[in-house]
Amino acid sequence: MLLQDQCLQMAVSARGASQHLAIAGSSSKDRWLKTSADLLVENALAIFEANERDIAAAPGYGLNAAAIDRLRLTPARIEAAAEGMRQVAALPDPIGRVRDGHTRPNGLRIQKIAVPLGVIFFLYESRPNVTVDAAALCVKSGNAVILRGGKEALHSNTALHLLLSTSLERCGLPATAVQLVPTLDRDAVGHFLKLHEYIDLAIPRGGESLIRRVAAEATMPVLKHFSGNCHVYVDRLADLAMAERIVVNAKCQRPGVCNAAESLLVHDEIADLFLPAIGTALSEKGVELRGCTETRKRIPTAKLATEADYAAEYCDLIMSINIVPDIAAAISHIARYGSKHTDAIVTTDLEAASRFTREVDSAAVVVNASTRFNDGFELGLGAEIGISTDKFHARGPCGLEELTSYKYVVYGNGQIRE
User: Fold this and answer.
1) CB atoms within 10 A of CB 345
2) Pairing verdict, β 386-388 and 396-398
């Protein structure tokens, strides 16, 4: 079969499955989520064996240490993926929910009802646990999904998909509700992106080059963010011990993910006290620092930062630092170099915190906590299919609600329009 025809067949099958899911009851979807969670844990050994094949091949694909960490599945990550599925099962079914309603003077009753989007084409790199999150959210929200993982996670994704597909059939749902693109041929992506008659939304999750390609070629809407240049601003009235914990966590807990902090902004009134301490703390974690001239006076081991550094998403143990004279300069720096993803302030000044949350135009603005909390699981969505920095139709971590649309249902008793 030609590649183009194979892609079309998958899309047609997904459309059929989406029609089944749109009317599937909550009980069958939740049963699938719980059954799949159990299968993940029960078959962890087989998943780890598949993952080890990917880990062994990773250096050949040029993956650095942070990228290999994203690729690696551990017992804790498998259990977290299973728990995510259970949490999604426990969430209310968004489909059929009345979002709004009112009665017109002529007696017409108007309801705004949540409905699935239909078919999702989901492209992602490295992190195989995302296979589970995406499938869970799509099926729970009544959507079929076509998964296209990266070559570096092929064996892991195949093992995970087999369990999810097996579980669908056990629970009376169409196996084609969750499909994995079997080929690594990059041309397949282009074929899928042309199939807007069957695919309702494309979601790319990975490197900026992948996302820009999808945004340029897609004939359907795209939910996306291009990069994650996230900032932490330490204000002049910050609790410096708290600030140190937050900065180290935001940069080091998982440096290769999109909500890891890449840039540190420090008010000049506390620079003499804070920068030597945070410089030592970050260096002990293996972080390479790149700062402005004034930063280097306080942290002599820091390299001189360039304009490119302040705009960079490193996805690695590297951090840029800039000293700013006031909160206005910090907000201006974020507006110039940021990616509208996640930005945080550490301060005890309520007025400064309020100004920061009002004026920083990002998908998530955080006060006195790590940027790492901009995550669907951490914000109580059960899981996320991605983070959007757009404003239509979804922004921030995208969970069940963001995978639905709505329709108007109108009830009358014989009214006609005059």
Assistant:
1) 29
2) antiparallel
Q: Which residue has the higher pLDDT, 385 or 110?
A: 110
Is the model's pLDDT at 391 over the cut of 80? no
User: DSSP secondary-structure letter at 259?
Assistant: T
Eight-class DSSP state of 162? H
3-state secondary structure of 262: strand
Identify the bridge partners of residue 245 per DSSP, sorted by sequence position. Answer: none
Within 8 A by CB and 6+ apart from 312, the residues are: 229, 262, 318, 320
308 burial level (CB within 10 Å; 0-12, 13-18, 19+): exposed
Task: Take residue 260 and report the two structure tokens written for it.
Answer: 């890891």
Provide the b/e sequence for 67-77 (b: ≥16 CB within 10 Å).
bbbbbbbeeeb
Tell me the sheet residues that pair with 291. 304, 321
Do residues 114 and 95 lie in contact, with contact meaning Cβ atoms separated by under 8 Å? Answer: yes
CATH among 3.40.309.10, 2.170.120.40, 1.20.120.420, 3.90.230.10 for 230-373: 3.40.309.10
How is the chain split into domains, by residue range? 3-224+398-411, 230-373
pLDDT at 386: 82
DSSP conformational letter for 222: B
Query: How distant is the alpha carbon of residue 265 from its chain centre?
Result: 25
For 359-374, what is the mean pLDDT?
Answer: 96
Flag whether the pTM goes above 0.85: no
pLDDT of 381 higher than 80? no
Distance in angstroms (rounded) separating the CA atoms of residues 40 and 164: 9
Give the helix/strand (H/E) hosting 320: strand 318-324
For residue 322, report the phi and psi dihedrals to the nearest 5 degrees: -140, 135
Tokens of 390: 């757009």
Nearest to 371 by CA among 239, 246, 240, 209: 246
Please determine, looking at this structure, whether the domain spanning 3-224+398-411 carries the CATH number 3.40.50.300: no
Q: How many CB atoms lie within 10 A of CB 121?
A: 29
Residues 6 or more apart in contact with residue 160 via CB below 8 angstroms: 40, 47, 128, 131, 132
pLDDT value for 399: 87
Give the mean pLDDT of 289-314.
97
Note the pLDDT tens digit of each residue in 151-202: 999 999 999 999 999 999 999 999 999 999 999 999 999 999 999 999 999 9
pLDDT tens digits for 213-241?
999 999 999 998 878 899 999 999 999 99
